[in-house]
Specification:
The complex is a heterodimer. Chain A is mostly helical. Chain A has helices spanning 2-37, 42-51, 53-77, 81-85, 90-104, 106-122, 133-156, 159-181, 188-197, and strands spanning 130-131, 213-214. Chain A has one domain. The longest helix of chain B has 37 residues, at 29-65. The chains are: A mainly alpha, B alpha+beta.
């Protein structure tokens, strides 16, 4: 049954997955091309490479999002009637859906690895700097996995759950506004942001330096 | 100087006449009047500033005369009675740390007085902060600041002030070379990586030569060895042109020489760089060399460094207990080979990510949609 679910889910996800694979291959190569034009000093080279960090994290988040949405899109349209009528435990069904989608994330991950290895092989890195293709690829894999898991969980939940999550976000915004109106100097949103993006926060894998080439 | 009581009319007139002679001509009469006016204005500003500084020094002296004195190890303290226990505890702590490093050299602090007094905020006593200052043998405060009223914070500040003075005791040559305070800690792997980036990013050819292992280039990079003409010896024509383009942007930026240089005339580039006194050597690297020497020397390294007589290589060799070129070789080896794990991936990132993935999967499997 897992094979059937994987095959049908691949049909829904192959377009975005292949596009993400292509982009994942191009980002490292383009970053090296940009940095080579400014090949005067190593610190300038590192600085230019660092500008492309945001591309990796956005690609990971985007790939996770699209694959998670594609996993549940058809079931949402059919109001989950087909899924609930299958002779399989519901949790097992959800787990197979998750597993199938996770497999498709291997494609953009492989794209990032291929692009990084091409950069390492080109030998255009200034002396004193080192290439980290495997480290970057692993980070990309974990980041896309986290993004996929988050959006998969949200898509699998009910509308009530989604409403609760939005309500919590709205409550934080309201609390921040109220504090500001009461002239209380406490930046609630910064504190929450630090919790989320600093280790071991849920989005901490997206923050920090995604450096393919570093000192 | 330009004190109201010492700058006589005659002196001002003499200065004005000499300026007029230099300018020459009847057309300069207008300039002379403007210059005289400018001189008078500058003199007034100087006198005003000087008076303000003297008034401040007098007020500080009056404040400090009401304070108590104490001694804690190498620290001669002047402190408010209310915070005397805090001051002594902080000074004891700082003294222990400095004695571990400098040994008997801490006695060189005896000519200074460390002032710790109450802090005031708009005239009101601020019990959360204290003012800390360093005064010389004449009672004049040479350094000052503030810290939280805690033993740890005051101790850190006292140590910093003491280190500033102890660095000066290493002699004017050493201070002119280092241009920073003596470091109190050893290099971490991350700091070696940053130093490596500085070395390989240096515009001068000695940077690459040092990274590739040429000891003479390393010595030149940290200014232990010199050359007659760094601009010509350490740069090729392309780098000289780029140096003018990037580092001398505000210098003669409309001159013909600059245009000729950027057009490819290397002699013009060299002229501009010589005129600007262009120094391509990264000064922060010298601190890392000192830390290398102190790490090699172990116990007593700081004391040997400040007590040694001689030039910079002699002091470094005394601190490290090995010849200066051995210090440079050890430093170069760390620059080249000390690595830190990549920022791109760490085990903590992997562990946290896996944890969150498992949690989200668990939530999606237990969704009420399925129950």
């Amino acid at each position: 049954m897992f094979g059937a679910i994987t095959a049908i889910q691949w049909k829904w996800s192959r377009g975005p997955a292949l596009l993400a694979t292509l982009i994942g291959f191009l980002i490292p190569v383009l970053s090296l091309q940009s940095a080579r034009r400014a090949l005067l000093t190593a610190d300038e080279f590192v600085y230019i490479m660092q500008q492309f960090s945001i591309g990796y994290s956005m690609l990971a988040a985007g790939a996770g999002l699209v694959v998670a949405l594609a996993a549940w899109a058809h079931d949402h349209r059919g109001r989950h009637v087909y899924a609930l009528s299958l002779p399989v435990a519901r949790w097992r069904y959800a787990l197979m859906r998750f597993g199938a989608g996770a497999l498709f994330l291997l494609a953009p991950t492989a794209g990032v690895l291929a692009g990084s290895l091409v950069v390492a092989a080109m030998g255009a890195v200034p002396s004193g700097l080192h290439v980290y293709p495997v480290a970057l690829t692993l980070r990309f894999a974990f980041a896309s996995g986290v993004a996929y898991a988050i959006f998969f969980a949200i898509s699998a939940s009910t509308a009530k759950t989604a409403g609760v999550i939005l309500g919590i976000i709205g409550a934080f915004l309201l609390a921040q506004t109220t504090l500001a109106m009461l002239a209380v100097r406490y930046d609630l949103l910064s504190s929450v942001s630090t919790l989320i993006f600093s280790p071991p926060g849920i989005l901490s894998v997206f923050a920090g330096r995604w450096m393919l080439i570093d000192v | 100087m330009f004190r109201r009581s010492t700058m006589s009319r005659g002196a001002r007139a003499a200065l004005s006449v000499s300026l007029s002679v230099a300018l020459g001509g009847a057309a300069q009469a207008q300039n002379r009047a403007a210059l005289e006016q400018h001189i008078v204005s500058l003199a007034k500003q100087y006198v005003s500033a000087d008076s303000a500084v003297r008034a401040y020094d007098d007020s500080i002296a009056r404040l400090n005369s009401a304070l108590d004195t104490a001694t804690a190890g190498a620290f001669r303290l002047t402190t408010s009675r209310r915070i005397a226990p805090l001051a002594r505890a902080a000074a004891d702590k700082a003294d222990r740390g400095l004695r571990d490093l400098f040994g008997a050299s801490t006695t060189r602090l005896s000519s200074y007085r460390f002032v710790i007094r109450d802090s005031r905020n708009r005239g009101k006593l601020d019990t959360s902060r204290v003012e800390i200052a360093l005064s010389d043998s004449t009672g004049r405060e040479v350094l000052s600041g503030a810290a939280n009223a805690e033993v740890e914070a005051v101790s850190r500040y006292l140590s910093s002030l003491a280190l500033n003075r102890l660095t000066r005791t290493a002699g004017p040559d050493f201070n002119a070379w280092l241009q920073a305070q003596l470091p109190m800690d050893t290099m971490t792997a991350a700091e070696w990586s940053k130093a490596r980036l500085v070395v390989v990013s240096t515009w001068a050819s000695v940077g690459k030569g040092c990274y590739d292992g040429r000891a003479h280039d390393c010595g030149a990079l940290v200014a232990l060895e010199s050359t007659n003409d760094p601009v010509m010896d350490w740069f090729d024509p392309r780098m000289r042109r780029e140096a003018v383009r990037q580092h001398l942007r505000a210098f003669d930026n409309r001159s013909e020489t600059r245009s000729e240089c950027l057009g490819g005339d290397d002699a013009s580039c060299a002229t501009m760089l010589h005129r600007a006194g262009f120094n391509p050597l990264p000064i922060p690297l010298r601190g890392s060399l000192v830390r290398q020497a102190l790490a090699l020397g172990g116990t007593g390294a700081y004391e040997r460094l400040v007590e040694a007589n001689g030039d910079v290589p002699t002091r470094l060799a005394a601190a490290a207990r090995v010849p200066a070129d051995s210090v440079v070789r050890a430093w170069q080896s760390n620059i080249r080979f000390t690595r830190v794990p990549s920022d791109a991936m760490r085990s903590s990132i992997a562990a946290a990510s896996l944890g969150w993935i498992v949690l989200c999967v668990g939530l999606s499997l237990r969704s009420s949609r399925w129950r």
